Amino acid sequence: MKHYIDSDNALYGFDDDQADLVPKDLILIPDTYATDQFQYLSVKDKKIVFDSKSYAEEKAKYQIAEYEMAVLNLLNSVALSWGYDSIVSAVSYFFSTNLQYKADAEALIAWRDSIWAEAYTIEQGTLPDTAEAFVAMLPAAPTKPTV
To answer: Alpha carbon of 102 to those of 92, 107, 128, 130, 139: distances in Å?
Structure first.
């Protein structure tokens, strides 16, 4: 499939066997522009213009959202391994009269807070290439307390 853009920045796609259907006023978009970059293309004086700054900013937002989801998955997986439904469920036992539940909640809250503090610090710098690498930079999970 070939992709095209018109003077109003509308995008079009035509299969190779539809070449004779492509209106003459459309401009072919080079294959080097990935599909997720199309929204940053525009036409000025019959030339394609690519707003790379906007694309980089938007890509960073999606990358951070992906990394934050990986952090939530990590927090939840540890809480699950300790017998809770989620990190939210585990920390809800902070005021429990059951000493084990209370100790678990205190340990997980301290760890959760250190995780997010470090995650936000990393986000201010250069992000690693993958969510797995991002998570590997975070504080290790605590050992489940025994009461």
So the answer is: 9, 9, 35, 35, 21
As a whole number of angstroms, the distance between CA 91 and CA 62 comes to: 28
Amino acid identity, position 21: L
What does the pLDDT look like over 98-127, one tens digit per residue? Answer: 999 999 999 999 999 999 999 999 988 888
Point out which residues pair with 28 in neighbouring strands: 4
What tokens were used for 28? Answer: 């072919």
- pTM attached to this predicted model: 0.65
Instruction: For residues 62 and 70, give the distance between their C-alpha atoms in angstroms, rounded to a whole number.
Output: 12
Task: Provide the token pair at 27.
Answer: 């401009």
Backbone angles phi, psi at 76, to 5 degrees: -65, -40
Length of the chain: 147
d(CA 63, CA 21): 38
DSSP-based helix, strand, coil % in the chain, nearest 5: 55, 15, 35
CA dihedral angle for residue 83, residue 89, residue 95, residue 100, rounded to 10 degrees:
0
